[in-house]
Design a protein that fits this description.
elongated, single chain, mainly beta, 11-stranded mixed β-sheet, 46% strand, 3 helices, 10-stranded mixed β-sheet, 7% helix
């Protein structure tokens, strides 16, 4: 069972006491979808059969931890479903969402909290609004408007053949969050004005207004792009199939800090990354820490009282290596290489995230 942080536990228990299916969606694109409910041991499974690009309007989405949504596309009419969460109260996805197409959840008027699992070809989560036609067409998509709410991700988000897009005024990926794009990119854009994503362009994520992105957990993709006014990373960030291309972009006076995270890849940053350590993938396997131990040898004498050796202390050293292998089998060792002084908690140090760092410039290439 997935652990839910204490900050959200009370909220989840209260909100999820309501039935998801007491508030069914309204189909905004007639003739493109039908659905039915099925009882399963953990709750309710709702199976959507989709024949074309589809828009579903939800006044309130509360998907319990045992419930499931499955969006199944049939035929060649389209492959995108946009779930527009229209109400002003917090929306929660704590169950499982699956699809053989592209899935988006957009909540322009309220917070969106995702502690469950979402698996689809392409996954978009946003607390800014988007035009349904632009979303369905892909390529260049503009997110804007809304009430400037936060997006919180603490579950497993997986794009099987496309990209993961996380958009909001503020974005929080929790320690329990695992974001993976198997064959595409992870694009994170935070701004209370607008976020523009062009999957085919050279500059793929552009933001306006003030935004904050705190990235923890695990982020895995061949390309990872983050654009925000302030970025704090404490995630295990790296590759899926090879060396990752990692891009950090902040505006004027923006800050990027690495708070105990491990970043493995070719890094391009618009500002110095303070604190922590980024690892060059070509050098990480050679990095070593030496563990020293002391052995005290006693004074030795012969039976006749003559001295053989005086007492002394011998120091021995054992090298330990930290690997950049993407499987992260020795994750605790890898993190010990990357951590700097964290005597103060993340939220008690200066700045929005308490993430000013120690002024150490990160190695990059």
């Amino acid at each position: 069972m997935k652990a839910v942080p204490l900050a959200f536990r009370g909220v989840l228990l209260g909100l999820l006491s309501s039935s998801l299916h007491a508030q069914d969606p309204v189909l905004a694109t007639p003739g493109t979808a039908t659905w039915q409910d099925q009882s399963i041991p953990t709750g309710t499974r709702t199976q959507f059969t989709l024949t074309d690009n589809t828009v579903l309007n939800w006044n309130r989405l509360l998907l319990g931890s045992g419930d499931e949504l499955d969006f199944n596309f049939v035929g060649n009419g389209g492959d995108s479903v946009l779930n527009v969460l229209t109400g002003g109260r917090t929306h929660i996805i704590a169950g499982n969402v699956t699809s053989n197409g592209n899935v988006g959840f957009v909540s322009p008027n309220a917070r969106l909290i995702v502690t469950g699992d979402i698996t689809a070809n392409d996954v978009t989560l946003s607390t800014l609004n988007v035009d349904p036609v632009d979303f369905a067409n892909g390529g260049s998509t503009s997110f804007q408007g809304g009430a400037g709410k936060s997006l919180t991700v603490g579950g497993n988000i997986s794009a099987t053949s496309g990209d993961v897009h996380l958009v909001g005024a503020s974005i929080f990926i929790q320690d329990s969050g695992q974001i993976t794009a198997q064959a595409g990119a992870i694009r994170i854009g935070s701004g209370d004005g607008s976020v523009d994503i062009d999957s085919s362009g050279t500059t793929r994520v552009q933001t306006s207004g003030s935004g904050n992105a705190l990235i923890a957990g695990v982020t895995r993709a061949d390309v990872i792009e983050v654009n925000s006014s302030e970025v704090a990373n404490r995630s295990d960030m790296g590759n899926v199939n090879g060396t990752s291309q990692i891009f950090f972009e902040v505006g004027t006076n923006g800050r990027i800090s690495n708070e105990g995270g491990v970043i493995v890849g070719n890094i391009n940053s618009s500002a110095p990354i303070t604190g922590g350590l980024a690892v060059d993938p070509n050098e990480a396997d050679n990095a070593q820490i030496v563990s020293e131990s002391n052995l005290k040898l006693p004074k030795l004498t012969r039976p006749n009282g003559t001295k053989v050796a005086s007492n002394r202390t011998v120091t021995t050293s054992s090298p330990m290596s930290a690997s950049s292998n993407s499987s992260r089998q020795t994750r605790s060792t890898t993190r010990s290489v990357a951590r700097n002084d964290r005597s103060k908690s993340l939220m008690t140090r200066g700045g929005f995230f308490g993430a000013r760092g120690g002024g150490q410039k990160v190695a990059s290439r």
